[in-house]
Design goal:
single chain, alpha/beta, 11 helices, 8 strands, 47% helix
């Protein structure tokens, strides 16, 4: 229905329509570029290559726990603003962490029970009258294997696993949580990485509390644009997830990064199906990252016969075919025809 369509695109009132129209027709407004992709998709590497000559200025997120919403824009001086998780964020992380722990325990116990039952059935096939018990060593190993298997299953749920990791870090942090945003200047771009390490580095002392990082930098290529690097959807931090979605809705261009080894996974498709239906997005670009990982595929090596350009063209053809196949079921109204 018309109302459903308006709601889907978040045109909920005349005021909202007027606000979006004025924002999108403003002559002097910045070109907004959004970057989306899973953790380890290569977003930080892309931004470091585009704006910092390949130097590791933006720390690479090792897990969903260390990912932060990052915004880059122009300023004549280097300025950094750090926003902190809210009380509600932390409460939500705690609740999701408890769900993760309960489910991990339940699945581990179920796995252990299945292993024990399988062992007993195996022994009874050898001897129908068998009624013995496994050794303590066997049970200990089963418990370890059962928990390992359960953790692998639970860690596939990025939202719950990320919440568990984040809350664990918050709970065991050696410093008190900062309750207000911080703003400070940095002498040069080269010093940014060291300053950010405390806030978004894997072992940064304030990392568990960081929600968003805004960088204003004297880089000519940032003039007239604003770049938003999102942690992705299903973010375990509610306020950050809401902000990321809102930021993407206001973007003129969105770059979607997907690692070539797991190109267009179900998570990538979920992200793409959501962002293409929102208002404000003008152009979408799909970027296969970490393409070098495919250069060691033996079939490609043999077919290319030592020619790098031939190998790259083969990989492009393979990824192009995967794109057409995987996006067919979410290409509503031809939104990906010009991707």
């Amino acid at each position: 229905s018309v109302n459903a369509s308006l709601e889907e695109n978040e045109f909920l009132s005349q005021e909202k329509i007027r606000e979006d129209y004025l924002k999108n027709t403003e002559k002097d407004r910045l070109l907004r570029i959004g970057i989306v992709g899973a953790v380890k998709a290569g977003k930080s590497s892309l931004l470091n290559a585009l704006f910092f000559n390949g130097n590791d200025i933006l720390p690479k997120a090792a897990t969903p726990m260390t990912a932060a919403l990052t915004e880059l824009s122009y300023c004549e001086k280097c300025e950094i603003t750090i926003e902190i998780k809210t009380d509600m964020d932390i409460q939500t992380l705690k609740e999701k962490s408890e769900i993760y722990t309960r489910e991990l325990k339940r699945i581990s116990e179920d796995n252990f029970k299945l292993k024990k039952e399988a062992w007993l059935k195996s022994e009874q096939r050898k001897n129908p009258d068998f009624s013995g018990s496994p050794s303590t060593e066997q049970e200990s190993q089963w418990k370890l294997d059962a928990e390992k298997s359960a953790r692998l299953k639970m860690d596939s749920n990025v939202s719950l696993a990320g919440a568990y990791q984040q809350y664990d870090k918050i709970h065991s942090a050696s410093v008190s949580r900062k309750t207000e945003s911080e703003c400070f200047s940095v002498d040069s771009i080269d010093n940014i990485a060291g300053k950010l390490e405390d806030y978004v580095g894997s072992n940064g002392k304030y990392m568990p509390f960081t929600s968003k990082v805004s960088l204003k930098l004297p880089i000519e290529t940032l003039k007239d644009i604003c770049v938003i690097d999102t942690p992705g959807f299903n973010d375990p931090v509610p306020s950050r997830d809401d902000r990321a979605r809102k930021s993407l809705r206001e973007c003129d261009v969105v770059f979607i990064l997907s690692p070539s080894r797991q190109f267009l996974s179900s998570n990538d498709k979920e992200v793409m199906s959501k962002i293409t239906t929102k208002n404000g997005i003008r152009e979408l670009y799909l970027i296969p990252s970490q393409i070098d990982s495919q250069l060691f595929n033996m079939e490609i090596v043999e077919e290319a016969d030592g020619d790098l350009n031939v190998a790259l063209n083969i990989i492009k053809k393979i990824l192009s075919d995967v794109t057409k196949k995987n996006l067919r079921d979410i290409n509503d109204n031809g939104v990906f025809n010009e991707l």
